[in-house]
Automatic annotation (TrEMBL):
GO terms for molecular function: oxidoreductase activity. This is 3alpha(Or 20beta)-hydroxysteroid dehydrogenase. Gene3D superfamilies: NAD(P)-binding Rossmann-like Domain. Belongs to the short-chain dehydrogenases/reductases (SDR) family. The keyword Transmembrane does not apply. Keywords: Oxidoreductase. The keyword Cell cycle does not apply. Pfam families: adh_short_C2. InterPro entries: NAD(P)-bd_dom_sf, Sc_DH/Rdtase_CS, SDR_fam. It comes from the Bacteria. The lineage of its organism: Bacteria, Bacillati, Actinomycetota, Actinomycetes, Frankiales.
Length: 258
């Protein structure tokens, strides 16, 4: 992706209403919640999108609702073979890849001493191994084209300690570190950034937590999935052409203090 100079815009680059025109994106965990909202926002911005998830029925419905702009591919992000199949299907459907959003994740809140090694391995397989395999699988196709943008969804639990988030936080801290290394190694053709959401009103929020979390946030409310999608749109588009290796925090001020 190149910068949005006046000369570039005059030459016919996508305008502000279609900042992803001509681009192709793969979004993991996009059958529902934050991933689905991001996929819909990308299509509205002019992109073609591969919806991927282990929830085949829900993912297929999302893709069908987006018409020719989307296809669905069942994908277990823990599986290297499944990633290869997804990239092959992407090549057959769209012939290119410009944006990878590593959104799929699992989450729970549990004291560290009550966690166990098996659950640690299970969470790391989705939240860290998944993005690792995604980067390895997708970068070659991205480099066949114009390069592009990789967006890893981390968390404010990857920058600040929260009780009950020992295992989840470990994965999100590690994802930030891996993203920064990838940004160094893949520049200048591919940019790699993280989004760090705060508490978002989504299926991942534990039941009964909304009021308590809202009260502890300077903005006095939960975040919305569309607000995260707008951050992803910025990092996917040429508007962020000089942004790589960074963290975009969208948390209503939660990390500003106690």
């Amino acid at each position: 992706m190149t910068g949005g100079t006046e000369a570039t815009r005059a030459a016919g680059a996508p305008g502000p209403l279609a900042p992803l025109a001509g681009k192709v994106a793969l979004i993991t965990g996009s059958a529902r919640g934050q991933g689905e909202v991001t996929a819909r926002r990308f299509v509205a911005a002019g992109a073609q999108v591969m919806i991927t998830d282990i929830l085949a029925g829900e993912g297929a419905k999302v893709a069908a609702s987006l018409g020719d702009a989307a296809v669905f591919q069942e994908l277990d992000v823990r599986d290297e073979t499944a990633w290869a199949a997804a990239v092959a299907a992407l090549r057959a459907s769209f012939g290119r890849l410009d944006v990878l959003v590593n959104n799929a994740a699992i989450h729970w809140i549990r004291p560290l001493l009550e966690d166990n090694a098996a659950d640690l391995d299970r969470l790391l397989a989705v939240n860290l191994r998944g993005p690792f395999l995604g980067i390895q699988a997708c970068v070659p196709l991205m480099l066949e084209g114009d390069g592009g943008s990789i967006i890893n969804i981390s968390s404010i639990a990857g920058v600040k300690a929260f009780r009950g988030h020992g295992v989840y936080g470990a994965a999100k801290w590690a994802l930030r570190g891996m993203s920064k290394v990838a940004a160094l190694e893949l520049a200048p053709r591919i940019r790699v950034n993280c989004i760090l959401p705060g508490a978002i009103d989504s299926p991942m929020l534990p039941p009964g937590a909304a009021e308590r979390v809202s009260a502890g946030t300077p903005m006095g409310r939960l975040g919305r999935s569309d607000e995260i999608a707008e951050g992803a749109l910025y990092l996917a588009s040429a508007a962020s052409s000089y942004t790589t290796g960074t963290d975009l925090v969208i948390d209503g001020g939660s990390t500003t203090g106690p």
